[in-house]
Design the sequence.
């Protein structure tokens, strides 16, 4: 009888939990390492903020979760479910499709209890080293620390599930930003709007967090100015808030035609105003002023970077086989396996602009089936050449490296992944996903939830 493989799963967030379940189903020996005292990762809201609000100081105490207190999900429960454990069938909080973070955490705890995963988790255990010891038989050393005690163990395989939303990525290329003398912070450390009361705030970014947080801050702040690099956002004064403006990278003429907003209501805001269109940030200066590309300037109090996150895997030592740079981990076949170390080393949950729960479940099943030899992977050369081809295509399309793991809500990736283990996405889920994408494309980040609810009901 062959020995069942011993697999280390690092992290007990959504990814680690669903990986553990799939590995267990394949009768593999599973140990889940979790640095926190509880499971849930991102969904375990933490009211603390870090001592360095920009997350630059490497010696700061890191707070893992980036959730703010009022956060509600931006995906309906149906799309935050697992194939055989449905969020929408649970009664937590109200009946709405979008829920608070507390409900998501309850759901994950129920999931872990239901599939008897809790006994697999070593809580309060930080993994400090994952190292490949023998490339031929792919064995890994996992070093960890539990309450000050160090452990070194050998594993046949390691699945990295440490999340991708903890280490801030900053808009450091704005001239003057590094020496700007006033308060700067990253959304990772945003919890409640109160510290922004009566302040003039510049928010950089236009993702869901930037939109959500800007709206919340606008309830108490003097002015909120959103600045985005995307040419797709509308340059306009908010129709919901009198004290909020959106600035983008549009050309001055098209922006002007579109909006024609006037100078800010505040005296400080008026001082350097040009024609009233405040565009993307051009530079910030030592006297505190923030200048947009059209020349309009604001004497801002706070700059809030809602500029996303980068990967940070300080424990990973692969002798250069896997590189972790900014927002790219590579080379990774299908964003999961480094060809040279497959299937021994894998990563779950690094894709963005996608449906995390659904993707993580199908990736996890694929990994479990690859480790139990139920499915075979292409050769190392084939996997590598596919990754290199992908990089080449990105270059040809002019896509930056930091978009490597942005799926752009493509369904063919999910279909491909399901097909590897003989699964097909349920029809109602597929319809919902397609409609959700349609809503996002049609109504944009401001309106997709309203449009979605017209078909699918309340939220
Ligand atoms: P995480 O949840 O980050 O879990 C990683 C785990 O690894 C943590 O428990 C951490 O403690 C542990 N860990 C890290 N390093 C180590 C180490 N060295 N040793 C031991 N343990 C370690 N997704 C949705 O589906 N719907 C939404 O509405 C949604 N909203 C979001 C809003 C915000 C503001 C953010 C930041 C994310 C949101 N997401 C949403 C995405 C969300 O991140 C995923 O749903 C999911 O939580 C990711 O799970 P994960 O397991 O990959 O990572």
Sequence:
């Amino acid at each position: 009888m062959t020995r069942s493989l011993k697999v280390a799963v690092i992290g007990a967030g959504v990814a680690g939990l669903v990986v553990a379940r799939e590995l267990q189903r394949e009768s593999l020996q599973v140990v889940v390492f979790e640095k926190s005292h509880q499971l849930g990762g991102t969904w375990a809201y933490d009211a603390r903020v870090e001592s360095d609000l920009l997350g630059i100081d490497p010696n700061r105490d890191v707070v893992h979760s980036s959730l703010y207190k009022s956060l509600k999900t931006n995906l309906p429960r149906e799309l935050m479910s697992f194939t055989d454990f449905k969020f929408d069938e649970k009664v937590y909080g109200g009946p709405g499709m979008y829920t608070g973070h507390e409900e998501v955490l309850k759901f994950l705890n129920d999931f872990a209890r239901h599939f008897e995963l809790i006994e697999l988790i070593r809580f309060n255990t930080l993994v400090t080293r994952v190292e490949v010891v023998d490339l031929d038989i792919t064995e890994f050393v996992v070093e960890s620390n539990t309450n000050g005690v160090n452990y070194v163990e050998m594993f046949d395989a390691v699945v990295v599930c440490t999340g991708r939303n903890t280490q801030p990525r900053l808009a450091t290329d704005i001239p003057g930003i590094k020496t700007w003398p006033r308060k700067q912070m990253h959304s990772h450390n945003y919890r409640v709007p109160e510290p922004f009361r009566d302040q003039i705030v510049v928010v950089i970014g236009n993702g869901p967090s930037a939109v959500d947080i800007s709206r919340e801050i606008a309830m108490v702040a003097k002015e909120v100015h959103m600045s985005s690099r995307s040419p797709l956002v509308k340059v306009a004064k908010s129709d919901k808030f009198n004290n909020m403006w959106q600035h983008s990278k549009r050309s001055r003429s098209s922006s002007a035609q579109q909006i024609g907003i006037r100078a800010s209501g505040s005296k400080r805001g008026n001082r350097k105003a040009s024609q009233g269109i405040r565009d993307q940030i051009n530079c910030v200066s030592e006297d505190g002023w923030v200048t947009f590309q059209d020349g309009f300037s604001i004497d801002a109090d706070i700059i809030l970077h809602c500029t996303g996150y980068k990967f940070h895997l300080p424990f990973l030592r692969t002798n250069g086989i896997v590189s972790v740079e900014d927002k790219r981990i590579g080379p990774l076949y299908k964003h999961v396996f480094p060809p040279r170390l497959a299937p021994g080393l894998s990563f779950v949950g690094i894709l963005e602009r996608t449906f995390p729960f659904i993707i993580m479940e199908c990736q996890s099943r694929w990994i479990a089936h690859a480790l139990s030899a139920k499915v075979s992977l292409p050769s190392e050369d084939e996997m590598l050449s596919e990754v290199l081809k992908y990089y080449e295509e990105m270059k040809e399309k002019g896509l930056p490296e930091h978009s490597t793991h942005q799926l752009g809500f493509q369904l063919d990736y999910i279909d491909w992944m399901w097909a590897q283990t003989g699964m097909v996405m349920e029809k109602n889920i597929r319809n919902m996903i397609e409609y959700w994408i349609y809503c996002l494309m049609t109504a944009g980040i401001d309106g997709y939830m309203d449009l979605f609810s017209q078909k699918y009901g309340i939220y």
